[in-house]
Amino acid sequence: MAAPDAVVDLYDKLERLDAAWSPRVVAEMNDYQFKLARFEGRFVWHRHEATDEVFLVLRGSMGIELRDRTIRLGEGELFVVPRGVEHRPFADEDCRVLLIEPRGVVNTGGAGGELTAGNDVWL
Amino acid sequence: MAAPDAVVDLYDKLERLDAAWSPRVVAEMNDYQFKLARFEGRFVWHRHEATDEVFLVLRGSMGIELRDRTIRLGEGELFVVPRGVEHRPFADEDCRVLLIEPRGVVNTGGAGGELTAGNDVWL
Questions:
Q1: Residues on B contacting A at a C-beta cutoff of 8 Å
Q2: Closest partner residue to B76 among A10, A52, A72, by Cβ?
Q3: What's the whole-model pTM score?
Q4: Which of A84, A48, A86 is CA-nearest to residue A65?
Q5: Which residues of A touch B83 (CB under 8 A)?
Q6: Over 90: is that where the pLDDT of A90 sits?
Q7: Best interface-test mutation with B: which of A8, A28, A53, A79 has the largest number of B CBs within 10 A?
Q8: How much is the ipTM here?
């Protein structure tokens, strides 16, 4: 776990990500967490009933399927999935992403399943 | 103002910043705002009593004076100033930064002065 008052080098930490779809916490602000994740392949459809969720692509590119359209994100692009909106992230190739959401949010929302990652795991 | 459900291209929006020390909102998540700002020169000493504040450098480099030390941030580096902690950001040359903090936070905290920027101004 990083010291709470340390400088966080996001691109350095990106290199240390391992399994896809396993967000790792790198910083906290109030009751929010900044998490880095590696996306590759297709995730599961899910939603977060209590919160919006921010995706910011740091390396590579990804998409987010919504029920009515597909969002595409490249490096430096940010998208806010509104609370309650079903979404399914995907990445054709390795993509590294910064996620921002309240502490305690589980990656699969209420959907569960084998891609549900351990929560509050620091990098 | 950007549509709430639009993709936000941070590097494109960076180009549209004008005056230094005048944060512009580019996205919202729950009751938090993502703001882009241009830093150049020295800001004022201030603190935010009710919230932590996140600085993420997107282009250039900057520093944050604290009362007991100086933090230095380059591109891709993030720092969380804890609530209540006095700080003074500075940049020797033009620097572009992403700020994340609750809606309603004023850039000069309780310090006021001529560098106090309009709040909730969208880019």
A1: 4-5, 7-11, 26-30, 32, 34, 51-54, 56, 58, 71-73, 76-80, 82-83, 100-102
A2: A10
A3: 0.95
A4: A86
A5: 30
A6: yes
A7: A8
A8: 0.94
* B113 dihedral zone (left: phi>0; alpha: psi -120 to 50; beta): left
Q: Does domain B38-112 have CATH number 3.90.1300.10?
A: no
* Residues ≥6 apart with Cβ < 8 Å to A22: A37, A38, A107, A117, A118, A121
Residues B101 and B113 sit within 8 Å (Cβ to Cβ): no
CA torsion angle B51 A78 B61 A16 (round to 10): 90
Give the residue-averaged pLDDT of B77-93: 97
B104 to chain A, closest Cα gap in Å? 15
Tell which CATH classification among 3.90.1640.10, 3.10.20.30, 3.40.50.300, 2.60.120.10 matches the domain A23-102.
Answer: 2.60.120.10
CA distance A41 to chain B (A): 21
Q: Over 80: is that where the pLDDT of B3 sits?
A: no
Q: For B16-58, how does the pLDDT look when each residue is reduced to its tens digit (9 = 90+)?
A: 999 999 999 999 999 999 999 999 999 999 999 999 999 999 9
Answer for the pair B84, B74: CB distance below 8 angstroms, yes or no: no
> pLDDT by residue (tens digit) across A18-53?
999 999 999 999 999 999 999 999 999 999 999 999
